[in-house]
Amino acid sequence: MSSFYRFDDLYIGQTETLSKTITDADVTMYAAVSLDTNPVHLDEEVARRSRFGARVAHGMLSAGLISALLGTRLPGPGTIYLSQSLTFHAPVRIGQTVTATVRITDLNLPRKSATLRTTCMVKENVVIDGEACVLVPSRP
After folding, report:
1. Residue 70, exposed/middle/buried by CB under 10 A (0-12, 13-18, 19+)?
2. Got the DSSP string for 35-92?
3. Predicted structure pTM score
4. Predicted confidence (pLDDT) per residue in 44-102, tens digit
5. N or C: which end of the chain has fewer CB within 10 A?
6. CA distance 33 to 48
7. Distance between CA atoms of 119 and 104, rounded to whole angstroms?
8. Which residues, 6+ apart, have CB-to-CB distance to 56 below 8 Å?
């Protein structure tokens, strides 16, 4: 298991990243689990005629990397989502590598919560950005 943090360990500016190359299997499995079978994700012929010109991954598949970061790395296990805003800027194509980054922008001591800037990029291009607010476990 990766290292993880308690509320008292956190500081503004603290950052963590996670990268994943999106595969055809990822898209197919995500469609099965989420029940989002939009043909733009699954059908090459339909997708070719779409605004994207080819199949694209589900936006929430890439956004899921943010959740993975929050729950496993920063802050880590025990973190509870309170909110997440997302703005989708560009599609992610099968075979592209998405790098998710979370950066702490605010800490609320009485509530033991953290606000984080969340971003997903493909190379130098922002594909998703937003903000998350989470509850962070404290030391016993």
Report:
1. buried
2. ----HHHH-HHHHHTSTTSS-B--HHHHHHHHHHHHHHTSS-TT-EEEEEEEEE-S--
3. 0.93
4. 999 999 999 999 999 999 999 999 999 999 999 999 999 999 999 999 999 999 999 99
5. C
6. 24
7. 12
8. 40, 41, 47, 91, 92, 93, 94
